[in-house]
Amino acid sequence: MKKNTVVIAGAGSTHTPGIIQSLIQKKDTLPLKKLILFDIDEDRLDRVKAVMTQFIKDNYDKELEVIATLDYAEAFTGVDFVFAQIRQGGLEMRRDDEKIPLKYGVIGQETCGPGGSISYGIRSIPGVIKIIEEAKKYSPDCWILNYSNPAAVVAEATRRKFNNERILNICDMPVAILLSYSKMLGLSDWTELDPEYFGLNHFGWFTALYDQTGKDRLPELREKIISTGMEACSDRHHKDKDWQKTWKQYAEIVKDYPEYLPNSYLQYYLYSSDVVKKMDLTHTRADMVIEGREKELKEEYNKFLADPDNYKSPVQEFTVFGDFIVDAAASIAYNKGYRYLVIVENNGAIPNLPADAMVEVPAYLRSWGPEPVARKPISSFYKGLIENQLSSEKLAVDAYFENSYDKALQAIAVNKTVSSTSIAKAILDDLIEANGEYWPKLEKKSY
Ligand code: G6P
Ligand code: MN
């Protein structure tokens, strides 16, 4: 079995220990020759390196070469896979993305609404493009698996820029949801369910869940969710206190719209004003992550600094984030053809949506790329919601490539989370200021 060189781009993230844990646990699925940790932020990279080095040594074959670097050439030369998970502007800018819209009574969320889709989208695009260009420069044949958010907007940008040549945009949310489903159905693993699913990233629905006997378990699950609620995802990431609220809210969506089972992110669009009421402008999710995962990692690093020679990394808990990217890479590396929910160009997979929409659907992951599964046309409710969201996402990408204020305003105004143009304008002006150099200079067109 060929061994792989993997570079984690954005390795200073608190998600990296989870990926490393999965690489270790799945060392027979995706054997490694070399693991490269790359980041542009030295402090963050140092922290992850310090906390994880001994852990890797203790748990992987001695031959595995591990390096941490800030240098593009060193990071991207001779690699088979790039696991990209960058966050332009860090959690500090996530905070602004959440708080600015919320100040105007609009959803303030990492990947949804004016802050998540538009602000973070326009900021993220150049960062992701840079990583991909560097990767392709030094390793033209590598595969780039991209988790960087907002994945829907980023995927549209990479489609336009690179035709998504050896680039696969992915998200762990469907897997997190499937993990809960499989537990509720008494199955031992989420991969025992073959889902039918359609939509955009963070904006889709499960329409069937086939088990290994070929039986669709969705009707049984629907009843369970409505009568007893949704079971929380059990991985390290999605079980924290704040995520519990999402799992609790999940059953409400199913009660109102029982036809299909939703992606949990639909709560922000279908219940915008209710969710806003529960959000706290002085303490949003970014604050919780800074005070939670970020703080824990810093504390671990301090333990290392206090006594580097005797430092012992804690046992890393399983995350679907780590497991999914490793499985997806293995499917591509060895042409396994595993069937996963990934973000691909539509091209008829959902017949009554535009061919050039980046949709999230089941696809077989082959060494030459994803082979999406086509389905029947979707009905009005879903089509209307998706087309609305899709236009907002495409307009955000237009705004970036055309440096267009007008397109950015349209992207915000058309978004379902925004009810009025006066609010859209006020939010956009604040976002321009907050993003500073992260955004291109947006120009108003003269008519
Ligand atoms: C899910 C989504 C990711 C998102 C994350 C946010 O896993 O799929 O795209 O980044 O949730 O979680 P957090 O704990 O950072 O709020
Ligand atoms: Mn996601």
Automatic annotation (TrEMBL):
Entry's cofactor comment: Binds 1 NAD(+) per subunit.
Active site, per annotation: 172 (proton donor), 265 (proton acceptor)
GO MF annotation: an example: hydrolase activity, hydrolyzing O-glycosyl compounds
Keywords of the record: Cobalt, Glycosidase, Hydrolase, Iron, Manganese, Metal-binding, NAD, Nickel
Organism domain of life: Bacteria
Marked site (Increases basicity of active site Tyr) residue numbers: 110
Residue ranges of every copy of the Glycosyl hydrolase family 4 C-terminal domain listed in the record: 197-418
Keyword Metal-binding appears in the UniProt entry: yes
Residues at which Mn(2+) binds: 171, 202
Database matches in InterPro entries: GlycHydrolase_4_CS, Glyco_hydro_4, Glyco_hydro_4_C, Lactate_DH/Glyco_Ohase_4_C, NAD(P)-bd_dom_sf
Transmembrane spans: none
Keyword Manganese part of the UniProt annotation: yes
GO BP field: carbohydrate metabolic process
Cofactor: NAD(+)
Binding, substrate: 94, 149, 285
Gene3D superfamilies given in the database record: Lactate dehydrogenase/glycoside hydrolase, family 4, C-terminal, NAD(P)-binding Rossmann-like Domain
Listed PROSITE patterns: GLYCOSYL_HYDROL_F4
UniProt similarity note: Belongs to the glycosyl hydrolase 4 family.
Annotated protein name in UniProt: Glycosyl hydrolase family 4 C-terminal domain-containing protein
